[in-house]
Amino acid sequence: MKIHDSHLHRRRFICGMLGGGATALGVGVALPVVPYAGNLRQEPLPPFMVLEPPDYDLEPGTSRILMYGHIPVLLLKTPAPGSRLKVFVATCTHFDCTVSYKADENRIFCACHEGYYDLEGRVISGPPPRPLRPFFSRYHEDRLIIALEEENLQGAAETAAG
After folding, report:
1. Which spans in 38-153 are helix H?
2. Reported pTM
């Protein structure tokens, strides 16, 4: 009878260890994914966004991050004389980290995996597979209107005027 009891204890121990290992593996796989699960339930994006001069009036060679719904936006004024404003989705195309402008290097940088983009949003180096997505933009009076789709700019000027 003693041998039979130890067999059951071993079986229970082995099942417990396998179950615990499977649980640990599941948690280890799920934890890195959980932050991205929230992105599946985001509110729809507005068709366009209207910016007032304090939001977009930048000195040459500077940048600012704003939010377009749940998407970070990089506003960048290039350092060249007569520079113009560039507007990109501020999300790295490699792993959705937020990018920033490095004025000392005159490049856009993703700190997650050291990806670099030029001032046109094209990949220079690192793991990003695609260029940064640009926003379509136009000025209406003293306002800047930005949109992810060009057709959304059509009626935006009339709405911005009102």
Report:
1. 53-56
2. 0.71
